[in-house]
Design brief:
heterotrimer, A alpha+beta (390), B alpha+beta (603), C mainly alpha (326), B: 603 residues, alpha+beta, D-Maltodextrin-Binding Protein, domain 2, Dipeptide-binding Protein, domain 1, Dipeptide-binding Protein, domain 3, 6-stranded mixed sheet, 30% helix, globular, disordered C terminus, C: 326 residues, mainly alpha, MetI-like fold, 2 domains, 11 helices, 0% strand
Chain lengths: 390, 603, 326
């Protein structure tokens, strides 16, 4: 027994880490993902303006040019000029004229104290609002990473321009990341928990429980994913739900289509493990069923879980954007990358793609997130799966 | 026996030989100067799920199938006064040779032109009228035109008086009964094709006819075109109906010209419609927002496509507006919504130019009335545009007791505890209204007014509006206990600008108040104006009442108008219409009076 | 073998019933029904109730499921569409065919690219090219399909504006003059229209397939008999080609049946953006209109396709894999 435990301790952590380190792409992916999640967590701080800040007179404003050289060409503290839109009624072109009469320097760590500018900083904002109220926690923060030195608050810097409502795309990307980057994790966690419970029950007890669960899984997986997902989302759609509930609904819908695979795999693992020596030994020693499942069988499937998590998460991130394309995803005023991208697409996407590339940046964000999650998944699989180790 | 049959056949042949075709001739202002022959390519956003004119459901479907449905009795003169009626009260007759009104808007006798034929050579007579009435009026057929056959619970009566004459009697007078309650105008169907099936298999048999798997060559046309090809989800190809040219003439007496082939490509994505237009694969296109107008303009300027863009020629027929639910069960909200100063305050806080800039990209018009300015002469010229004056709004709210701000900065009434906060809902998928709601909410927020934009399913959105006072119970509230909603009406109907169904107390589309008893004096007055307008025959008089009512509505704001979209039109078919007549209401197919409008104007 | 086929076939029945019942229950869980949309009817306020009674929507939902199932099983009758009143089968069959015209070549293309990538990556694990190929296939996966299709459309329109001729069509499955073409011309025309959507669909499933190939190849390569073969002194090439590759083909046979529905899903948004006349637009509009029978028919047929696909895969596997005995 001692031997087994010692080997296990070494294999799951240190061996996996050793293996993982051999995978340079996965290491890069881990760093990139880490940065993305950090940015999402501190979105209120990094984004220069609040999530719902709109400006009807500055829709589709191109990215602000940040100047670092003054008129004489000397290096100087970064500054920007303001821009004003007029529509040429002959060509229907939106003409942006730069007003160079006054330069507005950028500032780091800007405080804005307007009632709509304050925010609840991370990680306090993870506590649900009613609980915060009950506990009397109300820490408002007013500090932003950067901003324009302009007391009137009218001059704004938009690193990635503005969208159809005149909102800052850079800021919205960060706020949207909160939903797009967590929806996958939460949905796959829920799916895996359901899958493990069902698979565990099926695999351990066998008999009619196994039969029923297996049939159910089979039936569920027989319906093509997208169509099942759309049907599920459409059920909740007419219910007039607030956006937080919609978020939950999407997670539930995604996990409903995803738990089957996990359940089947866990069941398979258990079936093979059940016959192994240590289970038989534990049973002989009089361990209860639940103890055997908890202590011996489930840890064995840990590597499997890590691998399937990393495969499911990017899939769900993409599924979220597809739901938005069909109008069944996150609804405004909430923001997600999928919603931003499909909204951008609906505004004359064919010609806008070149002329207004900045509103399509959520596509790039999705691309990076999905790519890095997949690369990380590759690394993790190689690390945890003994067969693919080198 | 045999001899009798032969005699009958001979008589029929003789009758056919001598049957005089009584053609319809276009008025001279409908001069079809359009290209002759050739092909027209059209791209349509939507799908076709049936080829059966009885069963068409969407506007685009009806418009396409209208190309081969039989003729109506009257037509709407879009280039004249846009009515089925001439200024002198007589009708614009199409297939009807004469309409004799026995009781105004209730009973009339229609005499049909003789010698009009279906594409297979069978003459159109009152047999077809009877068949259409029987089939469309059978509730089991589930025709979307069923409503032409009933007024409330009572049936409209059809009496056939002869081969070319029939009489229609309504249980009670209806506005524009000749166009709306004569089922002949719901799309005439060939009796010799439909009746045998209907008699043998009943409603189910009719429903199984002319589905999407029908061989197009078996479809009989009574309109300008024949269906030649149908590819599910992809394309319809129409070719000219030679029969039609014999019975519908241009002003100079020649047959109505037009393309020989008409290709309609079906797509389901707005980007597809646009890309087909700017690569010269569509002969006409209705750009809706600035992006689309600009894309077409670019392509025209570069010479990639050869047509003409009539850009931003005026407001479209639709106006978006806000209405509040006076019947809210929440007392705070109901009192607030019922208070005219609240409604004025919110209206003051709406920056309509910002709405145009954000929701329409700068191409659109601030509205000043619930009816579009395109609906001349019902465009309320005396109304001033709304001013954007949020400070004034704050003052108004202060005057009605909202004097303090709470911790979140929302205006509060210290004595009642009520807050200026409400949901503003709009129908899902309508990005324009979504943007309007967001901009309104964000503009009002700094002034202590908390508006929560809410996207709801079209069903909830619709259920919030509709319902008559008969079904309304003040204790339970409305079907949907909503706060406020953005919706709109496509106006422009000069035959019925009174909007009797919405502006009278307790009517089906009266979205603010379903109560018939709990009314304020202005609501009663508005109802009186509406009744008066409905019975005023003289156009001048109608306009006058309309303007008075518009002034009253401006004062009490049951409806808070927001914006109209801009109307633009691209075509490479040559001079479709005189430019002076081009506006949102007049874009019409020159091939047929009235019938093809929906395809050409629906976005 | 025959007994196995029969047993597998009968195993499909409960799966089919449970799957359709689940789908039915999910659809019925949505509030309102098809008739609700007519509550808005201005002229005829009783329309909603009348239609509800006519369509039997006022009956309990499980009863309606039983009626539906009876009709499907006994008559292969999927009912009539509530929207168009047409037979559902007539409505969806041509669209289903169009979807298949897109999917089968896309699947073939995806496999044609994925197999060499997977095999190479497995044989040259962690080589530079392995990494490049992995990243390349992942990149196709990482762009949402509808966005990829839009990029393609923008490229097509841009090309036309620059050169004034079409490199690729802007959308659809056929040209407007299609019906007047010769048979060969027709095939060429559809193929030309197929290029864009096919590339998008297969690019997005490439990563999935090549990774499965790679994984399964690695599995096979680590098996004992391959090791034995190597230890016997056979050359790497012989081992790889004769043993590993043959087993890899088994893998393809095993998964090919299961991949089709995944591709149907992947093609969903592509059909919209590229104007391909497939089933997804009808599915979406039916789901919003709560046109139960159309939704059910599409779900059922796709489910059947998947089950039959899997069955064929399994049977083929049983035929070719000497290790499987039944």
């Amino acid at each position: 027994m001692d031997d087994v435990r010692a080997v296990k301790g070494a294999s799951l952590t240190s061996i996996a880490w050793q293996q993982f380190k051999k995978h340079p792409l996965a290491r890069i992916a881990l760093v990139v993902l880490g940065i993305m999640y950090l940015l999402a967590a501190f979105a209120d701080f990094v984004a220069p303006y609040p999530e719902h800040d709109i400006n009807a007179n500055a829709t589709f404003e191109p990215p602000t040019v940040v100047h670092i050289r003054d008129a004489e060409g000397r290096l100087t503290w970064p500054y920007i000029y303001t821009m004003k839109k007029t529509i040429d009624m002959q060509t229907f072109e939106s003409v942006w004229t730069v007003d160079t009469s006054r330069a507005y320097p950028l500032r780091l760590f800007v405080r804005r104290t307007g009632i709509r500018d304050r925010y609840v900083p991370f990680p306090v904002n993870l506590i649900p609002v009613p609980m915060r109220r009950a506990l009397g926690i109300r820490p408002w923060a007013t500090l932003h990473l950067f901003g324009v030195d302009d007391p009137s608050g009218q001059v704004k810097v938009h690193l990635l321009g503005t969208d159809d409502l005149g909102s800052d795309v850079f800021g919205k990307l960060l706020f949207g990341a909160r939903i797009s980057l967590t929806i996958g994790i939460l949905a796959s966690l829920v799916a895996i928990v359901i899958g493990m419970i069902m698979g565990g029950l099926a695999g351990f007890y066998g008999g009619w429980i196994d039969e029923v669960i297996l049939r159910f899984v089979e039936a569920l997986s027989a319906i093509p994913d997208l169509f099942l997902l759309l049907t599920l989302s459409a059920v909740f759609y007419p219910l007039h739900l607030p956006s937080t509930t919609q978020f939950t609904v999407i997670i539930v819908a995604l996990s409903v289509i995803g738990w089957g695979g996990t359940a089947r795999a866990v069941r398979g693992q258990l079936l093979s493990l059940r016959e192994r020596d240590f289970t038989v030994a534990a049973k002989a020693l009089g361990a209860s069923n639940s103890r055997i499942i908890a202590r011996h069988l489930l840890p064995q499937t840990l590597s499997f879980i890590i691998i399937s998590l990393s495969i499911q998460i990017p899939g769900y991130t993409l599924a979220e954007s597809v739901l938005s394309f069909f109008g069944l995803g996150i609804q405004p005023p909430s923001t997600s990358w999928g919603l931003m991208l499909s909204t951008a697409q609906s505004f004359a996407g064919v010609t806008g793609l070149g002329a207004r590339w900045w509103i399509f940046t959520p596509g790039v964000a999705i691309f990076i997130a999905v790519l890095t999650w997949n690369l990380l998944g590759d690394g993790l699989r190689d690390a945890f799966d003994p067969k693919s180790r080198r | 026996m045999k001899r009798t049959l032969m005699a009958v056949v001979a008589a029929a042949l003789l009758a056919a030989a001598f049957a005089q075709v009584e053609p319809f001739t276009y008025p001279s202002n409908y001069a079809p100067t359009l290209k002759q022959g050739g092909t027209v390519n059209e791209t349509l956003f939507g799908d076709i799920t049936t080829l059966n004119p009885v069963l068409t459901s969407s506007a685009s479907e009806s418009a396409l199938i209208g190309l081969y449905a039989g003729p109506g009795t009257v037509y709407r003169d879009w280039l004249g006064n846009r009515s089925f009626q001439k200024p002198d009260g007589s009708y614009n007759l199409y297939w009807a040779k004469d309409i004799k009104v026995l009781k105004k808007d209730q009973q009339f006798i229609v005499t049909l032109r003789q010698g009009w034929k279906w594409s297979d050579g069978v003459e159109m007579t009152t047999d077809d009228v009877q068949a259409t009435w029987d089939i469309v009026g059978d509730p089991n057929v589930e025709s979307n035109n069923y409503s032409c056959s009933v007024v409330g619970d009572k049936k409209v009566q059809l009496k056939i008086l002869g081969k070319y004459q029939y009489e229609v009697t309504l249980p009670e007078p209806q506005v524009n009964a000749i166009a709306n309650n004569d089922c002949t105008n719901a799309g005439l169907i060939p009796a010799h094709i439909f009746m045998p099936v209907y008699k043998a298999k009943g409603a189910a048999g009719v429903k199984a006819m002319w589905g999407v798997d029908t061989d197009p060559s078996t479809i009989v046309s009574g309109g300008p075109y024949l269906l030649k090809e149908f590819r599910a989800g992809e394309r319809l190809v129409f070719v000219k109906n030679p029969q039609y040219a014999k019975q519908v003439m241009a002003a100079d007496g020649t047959g109505v010209p037009g393309p020989d082939t008409w290709n309609v490509t079906l797509v389901k994505d707005a980007n597809q419609v646009l890309s087909r237009a700017i690569t010269g694969q569509s002969d006409f296109y209705w750009p809706v927002n600035l992006d689309q107008v600009k894309a077409v303009k670019d392509a025209v300027d570069k010479g990639t496509i050869k047509g003409t863009l009539y850009a931003n020629i005026g407001p479209s027929t639709a106006v978006d507006f806000i209405t509040y639910n006076f019947n809210q069960t929440d007392k705070c909200k109901a009192d607030m919504f019922r208070n005219v100063y609240f409604r004025r305050a919110i209206s003051d806080m709406i920056d309509r130019n910002a709405l145009v800039n954000a929701a329409l990209g700068g191409l659109g018009f601030p509205a000043k009335d619930w009816n579009s300015a395109a609906s001349k002469p019902f465009d309320a010229p005396n109304l001033k545009p709304f001013a954007f004056d949020p400070e004034q709004g704050v003052q108004l709210l202060k005057n009605i007791g909202f004097t303090q701000k709470d911790a979140d900065g929302v205006l509060t009434n210290p004595t009642t505890g009520c807050k200026v906060e409400f949901d503003l809902q709009y129908n899902s998928g309508n990005t324009r209204r979504g943007q309007e709601a967001q901009v309104i909410a964000q503009t009002a927020a700094p002034y202590g007014v908390k508006i929560n934009p809410r996207e709801v399913s079209t069903q909830i959105w619709a259920n919030s509006i509709v319902g008559t006072s008969d079904n309304y119970d003040p204790a339970k509230g409305r079907t949907v206990n909503y706060d406020a909603e953005i919706w709109g009406l496509a106006g422009g109907d000069v035959d019925n600008p009174s909007f009797r169904n919405g502006l009278m107390p307790g009517t089906n589309l009266n979205s603010w108040n379903k109560s018939k008893t709990d009314l304020q004096s202005w609501e009663i007055l508005m109802g009186q104006y509406t009744v008066e307008m409905n019975s005023a025959l003289d156009l001048q008089k109608r306009v006058q009442i309309y303007d008075e009512r518009a002034a009253l509505m401006r004062e009490w704001l049951p409806i808070t108008p927001l914006i109209s979209t801009s109307f633009s039109f691209y075509t490479d078919l040559g001079n479709t219409w005189p430019k002076s007549a081009l506006d949102a209401n007049s874009i019409q197919s020159p091939y047929r009076p009235g019938g093809f409008r929906e395809t050409l104007t629906a976005p | 073998m025959l007994r196995y086929i029969v047993r597998r076939f009968f195993n499909l029945i409960p799966t089919f019933v449970i799957a359709t019942f689940l789908a039915w229950a999910i659809i019925q869980a949505a509030p309102g029904d098809f008739a609700s949309q007519f509550a808005f009817d201005q002229v005829d306020p009783n329309k909603a109730e009348r239609i509800r009674a006519l369509l039997g929507l006022n009956q309990p939902w499980y009863l309606r499921y039983l009626y539906w199932l009876r009709n499907v099983v006994l008559h292969f009758d999927f009912g009539t569409s509530m929207t168009s009143k047409a037979s559902v089968t007539a409505l969806i069959l041509p669209l289903m065919r169009n979807s298949m015209i897109l999917l089968l070549p896309a699947t073939a293309l995806a496999f044609a690219i994925a197999i060499p990538i997977g095999v190479y990556s497995a044989l040259h694990k962690y080589s530079f090219l392995d990494r490049v190929l992995t990243v390349f296939s992942l990149m196709g996966l990482a762009v949402p399909n509808f966005f990829l299709a839009l990029i393609l459309l923008a490229f097509t329109v841009g090309w036309f504006h620059h050169f004034h001729w079409f490199l690729l069509p802007t959308g659809g499955m056929t040209s407007t003059a299609f019906s007047s073409f010769t048979p060969i011309h027709k095939i060429l025309d559809v193929s030309w229209h197929l290029i864009g959507p096919m590339l998008v669909v297969s690019l997005s499933s490439l990563a999935f397939l090549s990774r499965i190939m790679r994984g399964e190849m690695l599995e096979v390569l680590s098996l004992d008999y391959i090791r034995t073969a190597r230890s016997k002194g056979l050359s790497d090439r012989t081992v790889n080609v004769k043993h590993a590759l043959r087993n890899a083909i088994l893998v393809i046979v095993a998964i090919i049946g299961g991949t089709l529905p995944g591709l149907v899903s992947g093609a969903g948004s592509v059909e919209f953006v590229t104007g391909w006349p497939g089933i997804t637009p009808l599915f979406i509009s039916s789901i919003f209109a709560q046109d139960v029978y159309v939704v059910m028919a599409l779900l059922t047929i796709l489910t059947l396709l998947l089950m039959v696909g899997n069955l064929i895969s399994d049977l083929a596997l049983a035929l070719v894999d000497p290790r499987i005995r039944y």
